[in-house]
């Protein structure tokens, strides 16, 4: 603290005291704790009857895989699902929040939610926070107006696309889509293509890995295929099971019931003062 | 200009003007693969000056000696410098006149040494090189990056090709590809690069090297498809969005 500072009593609101200390620490070389990012491959495509979304299941904390099998395809409405890449807390919180808002809206209007509603709610929120809410989303669903697929970037811009990829593995997945996508895919072709794209992300990107989740949405019907494919099974299992060290001899057993040690005071004013 | 203290050494601003700090005119990815008879390599013909597409007829693949083919991405002036070093190398090799000639493995090794030494002096040649060739029936395909990282593989790519083309090649490459299949696979990769790399141009050459020698094709363009209904009418059912 410099000498010229006068001690002002805190007036409420955000206290910026620790900001200077954090700055000083980063200048001295101490690293701030990093956010848990999903480091992901997420994809979506439109096929002849609706939308298929896909995601890998690895969540990373810097160089460590902190969750081998997390869920990146979030529920928004019965007919709308959203994949999230970026900071895990941000994607979870923002999709949860908009999902609740959509339900309230459904009660209000008495109608099925539309994908553009979810899109607008998400992009308004993200733009409001100027990119600090680091959520990159692939939103897909089928409503009365047909199947829709959108990407939403952390700063709030959106795209409407026939096929989309986001996350660190997006280039590997996009290379699969750009070479193999065509309009009017059938359900099986679509699922196969989504799985191929996610596998390209899993095997060629270090931030993506583990298993493939797929979610298929058509008019009035949805299939959430959790762990649709497990291309990374645990193949080595040690023959030696867990063996504890040689048995410890029991010399004496003495059991003391606790009731003897504890006094129970039966009194009606035990809770007062 | 007063002398900087000795301790600042190579990183003083005076020495800055003597070494490469950033690339100026750059070429984008090169993709190459081994096929039945030799090596196939593809590169487009664009030379970008920052974000401008300045030169549209740059040949980024050249034959080296009798047995090798070199493709480069990154700073084009450094590529030309490397070509002149290799010229000298091949010339000295020819002057020996001993019936032996430098094969792709030797040229690759030479390039690795050159790149790594320049990097150690903090004055890199800002290029990623792809070296392919066939000698005595043995196919060779290797890559050297600007810091001297070098390796040999059945298929390589530089720059954006690493992210967009390698996944496709890892899935679809197999031993003993025929010439037509190899070209189709390379074109698939170059098409994805054309769609998704901002510095790509739709004018490419494919070069082939076999035991017989090097053939560089005439420049040609790839067919692209933009006819998705979602592209022509993206906001159907969602008026007002984009």
Description:
Chain B: Belongs to the peptidase T1B family. Chain B: Keywords: Cytoplasm, Nucleus, Proteasome. Chain B: Its main location: cytoplasm. Chain B: This is Proteasome subunit beta. Chain B: It holds the Pfam family Proteasome. Chain A: It holds the Pfam family Proteasome. The complex is a heterodimer of chains A (273) and B (242). By secondary structure, chain A is α+β, with helices and mostly antiparallel strands. Chain A has five helices and twelve strands. Chain A has a five-stranded antiparallel β-sheet, covered by helices on one side. A five-stranded antiparallel β-sheet of chain A has the order 5-6-7-8-9, with helices on one face. A two-stranded antiparallel sheet of chain A has the order 3-4. In chain A, strand 7 and strand 8 (146-152) form a beta hairpin. The longest helix of chain A has 22 residues, at 88-109. The radius of gyration of chain A is 26 Å and the shape is extended. Chain A starts with 16 loop residues before the first helix and ends in a 44-residue tail after the last strand. The model of chain A has no long low-confidence stretch (mean pLDDT 87). With 242 residues, chain B is an alpha+beta fold. Chain B is built from six helices and 13 strands. Chain B has helices at 13-16, 76-96, 104-120, 161-172, 179-196, 229-232, and strands spanning 25-27, 30-34, 38-44, 47-49, 52-55, 61-64, 68-75, 127-135, 138-144, 150-152, 155-157, 204-210, 213-216. The longest helix of chain B is centred in the middle third of the chain and has 21 residues, at 76-96. Chain B is globular, with a radius of gyration of 21 Å. The A-B interface holds A 46, 114-116, 119-120, 143, 145-146, 148-150, 158-162, 171-172, 174-176, 178-179, 183, 196, 200, 203-204 and B 160, 163-168, 170-171, 188-189, 191-192, 195-196, 228-231, 234-238, 240-242.
